[in-house]
Write a structure and sequence with these properties.
single chain, alpha+beta, Immunoglobulin-like, five-stranded antiparallel sheet, four-stranded antiparallel sheet
Length: 240
């Protein structure tokens, strides 16, 4: 009995020591739960699902000087004037249409022989620099203001305007007249191109100048009636 009591006492003391070493019992802070695994099709979908659509593009409203207004048909100005004529090539101003903010005009070129499309800015580049081969046009108003352009490149003021918008700066309106190419084409012996000119000219002659170094035409010009263009533009009506 004495030996059994001594063993019980030793076991009791050992148990108390273990509890003291481990400290008081504490409740668990969090309980982990096992969730079912995600289906295979969902894991594949997350990996290969298409990206969200991009935001809609910002709507561009062209300024009045950039092109003819969408809500006008314009008023035709009877112009059919030969500006330059040589034994093998002729150039004429045709199809002038005036709007409330400016006017369009087309130039028709006729050649006795087929014209290389590369000289008109189409096709692969030729061995000579493109700037030295293409048409270059200028418009001069009776008050001395003038502007120029080429077949395919807008004037520098137009490029600076849109560059400022892209960089988040306040753009400056180009000083008029702004002469901007508006397309064209042709082939063989017949070519026609169109330009937009802003603003309407004052009364007096409008001088159209052009150069074509590839055909040794370094300075040629002609005049059209600025008053007729202005009066036609002032009568152009809005569609809505």
């Amino acid at each position: 009995m004495h030996r059994a009591g001594s063993l019980s006492w030793r076991m009791f003391v050992l148990w108390q020591g273990i509890k003291t070493a481990l400290g008081p019992a504490r409740r668990p802070i969090a309980v982990l739960r096992a969730y079912p695994a995600e289906p295979v099709w969902r894991r594949v979908w997350h990996r290969f699902k298409p990206p969200p659509p991009p935001p809609p593009p910002r709507q561009f409203t062209p300024p009045p000087w950039f092109t003819d207004p969408d809500d006008e048909l314009g008023v035709s100005v009877p112009v059919r004037q030969v500006l330059f004529s040589a034994p093998e090539v002729s150039l004429a101003m045709i199809d002038c249409v005036a709007y409330s903010t400016g006017f369009r005009f087309s130039l028709a070129m006729r050649s006795k022989h087929d014209v290389n499309a590369g000289l008109m800015g189409f096709g692969p580049p030729s061995s000579r620099p493109f700037d030295e081969e293409q048409f270059r046009f200028g418009v001069r108003f009776s008050d001395g203001r003038e502007g120029s352009s080429s077949l395919h490149r807008p004037p520098g003021g137009v490029m600076a305007y849109f560059q400022a918008i892209q960089e988040g700066r306040e753009p400056e309106v180009p000083a008029g007249p702004v002469v901007s190419p508006r397309g064209g084409g042709g082939g063989g012996k017949r070519w026609e191109f169109t330009w937009w000119v802003w603003p309407l000219p004052p009364d007096g002659p409008v001088t159209i100048t052009f150069e074509w170094p590839a055909r040794n035409i370094t300075a040629a010009s002609g005049e059209v009636d600025g008053a007729a263009i202005r009066q036609a533009g002032e009568t152009s009506t809005k569609l809505w």
